[in-house]
TrEMBL record:
This is Reverse transcriptase domain-containing protein. It comes from Austropuccinia psidii MF-1. InterPro entries: DNA/RNA_pol_sf, Retrovirus_Pol_polyprotein, Rev_trsase/Diguanyl_cyclase, RT_dom, RT_RNaseH. Pfam families: RT_RNaseH (PF17917), RVT_1 (PF00078). The lineage of its organism: Eukaryota, Fungi, Dikarya, Basidiomycota, Pucciniomycotina. Keywords: Endonuclease, Hydrolase, Nuclease, Nucleotidyltransferase, RNA-directed DNA polymerase, Transferase. PANTHER family: PROTEIN CBG26694, PROTEIN NYNRIN-LIKE. Residues 347-454 form the Reverse transcriptase RNase H-like domain. GO terms for molecular function: endonuclease activity; hydrolase activity; RNA-directed DNA polymerase activity. Residues 103-258 form the Reverse transcriptase domain.
Amino acid sequence: MNPSLSFRMRHDLIDVLYTYKNAFASDNESLGPIEGHEVDIALNIDRPYPPVCRRPADPASPRARESLEKHIQELIQLGVLRKVGHNEEVEVTKPVISPWNNSKSRTVGYFRALNTYTVPDRYPIPRNQETLTQLSNVKCITSMDSLKGFHQNVLTPKTRKLLRIITHCAIYEYPRVPFGSKNSPSHYQRMMNTTFPTELSEGWLIIYINDIIICCDSWSLHLERLARVLDKARGVNMKISLKRCNFGFEELKALGHIVFVLSLGIDKNKVAEVLLKPIPHNKKEMMSFLGFLSYYRQNLKDFEILAKSLYRICDQQTVFGMTQERIEAYEKIRKALTEAPLILMPDWNMPFKFYMDACGDGLGEALHQVQINDEKLTEGPVCYISRQIKPTEARYGASQMECLPLVWALEKLHYYLYDSFFEVITDCNAVKSLLNMKNPNRNILRWQIAIQEYRGNMTIAHKAGTFTRMLMDLAGGN
């Protein structure tokens, strides 16, 4: 609960929470099950599932056995696991204790073999970028998590026999959807969308798998919407983790970011965990490091260009080795991560500014916007995009190379630029002449056709050196 809430606001909030107290549960209470949403795993009929095989339990030290037994007993008490007979003909796999949030851990089934025979569920998962931009200009935010997520969904009886794990003392079966099953996120997202269809269509409720975010502009509306969500959750027997709720905040953590009223920042706690790790010693560690950074690429200027040498050593044909050049690139990226500026939430009623440039190493571009903040006009970045130059593009002439960023960015930033007015700012006159070139070659002709969609909303301004100077000022904190 937001500590800055007034006494009256706290009182009203507690009244709502008490009314719907049955929608909440703690870690050691029984889960669900959510009613009306049984989950079935469809197997690929073109690839028959292999015959039944038995696997022995993995060897484990006394401490590992104690930890595993503790996790198993917790899941049995919650109704997530049940013991099955040893003489049953079953396909079994091993459980894995996986590190989780806040130094906690959870049991994940090692269902890799089953997942290869499972028909993919293509139900759409919301894109993080779109989810976060929905929080623009919201003055009151509440976030909630359903307790233990997937475990609240029930499996059909015929599916349960496919999801069994073996330990040193018994074989267990999942009556609920486990962590580690291929389509678990899709099943849960579908269930959540089916439970809250009206709220999602009205645009004030955001659901990302088991994360629930309520957006409001006033306190009275916040209480009304919170009551609606809790009422529907209680109606399907969904349990929400009270420990992971944040009620009535102007800013909070969501999807690895810090969400403010008008801007978005990187969660420094997640960054600190990565920065404490030593320099990667093999390809797996380097790919993990780059994967983490890639999640925040829209906050990082010239990310792909800075990481070029690091991506190169992850190739199968390349022998891993941290040269001085790669160590310097690694340190530059770490510094960029710690100094990443806040990016603005897009205001769809205001025009955008698009700064672009190309160099021998790659394309570096920034989408900006001028917004009204405290009755003042301020300009700031909405997102950064970058990529490396492809081998065929490296042979382009100077004019084509300067036009390439525009064509690529219009495709990459379509989410922001479609049906929006924007100004393209470049330090090369060739971009302006591209649109009016007569008798272009086939490559330029394709570019002209791609740009036609945006001609009515786009203006191009030539300002020598503007892009470079502006980004240097931003990096310096000006």
